[in-house]
TrEMBL record:
MF GO annotations: iron-sulfur cluster binding
Family annotation (SUPFAM superfamilies): 2Fe-2S ferredoxin-like
Superkingdom as given in the UniProt entry: Bacteria
Protein name: Dihydroorotate dehydrogenase electron transfer subunit iron-sulphur cluster binding domain-containing protein
InterPro entries: 2Fe-2S_ferredoxin-like_sf, Dihydroorotate_DH_ele_sf, Dihydroorotate_DH_Fe-S-bd
Domain Dihydroorotate dehydrogenase electron transfer subunit iron-sulphur cluster binding: 209-243
Amino acid sequence: MQQGQAIIERIRRISAGVQRLELAVEKPHQAISGGQFFLARTDSAYGPYLREAWLPIAVRENVVIVERPTRYAYLPNQVIDLLGPIGRPFPLRSSARTLLLIAYEATPAIFLLMLQSALARQCAATLVLIGQARRYPFEALPPALEVTLAEYHERWAEREQQIAWADQIFAAAPPPYDIPAYLRLLEDVQRIRQAIGPETLYGVFQPPMPCGIGACQACLVRLQSGDEMLACIDGLAFDLTRVNLLQNLPNSPGA
């Protein structure tokens, strides 16, 4: 993880709510993989706790593309202070040939950089957009990607077939939707597949991550073993068969 500066070269609005920023970045920041992120600061104020998580969706040469809500205003040639890459890449198995990605109530941007490499190696991928995630513009997604829409989890009509089909499953939901969504998904996968193999079912945890280095411990994820891991260092993706989801509810004992 390194600190450096990036310059906004281009801003492109892809929908009413989403814009893409093309950032000219320094060499250490070009080596970012799907599942990792930057902590960005747009002003000159000092201190790591004033940063926001920025998710890359594509990398090419010395440019990293990130998505940001259009409620935030940026300017060409604006300088951004970046800290990263932070976190671990998504654990996409080299043997995986079918990939199921599920976005609950938020943009699927977290998956797009991983998709770039998965599709390049001929993986078949399906993206399920649930709830508010359905607003994401289809034209901004890779043409080879199959997309399924559902109003909410129980209305996801093809979930039994798609869960049975996938070699690996990754789900992403922002707090406070994440734990309830992952509990329903884990129950479905256990029922449909009977046994869940290792490195099969992952949930993306995106709690507040003020520091990005684990010092503040604001992003603890509690495991079935009783151990604790940090979303910013050990995540963002965790094997849902190892996570104690009930202990990670905001009002649970020990939370």
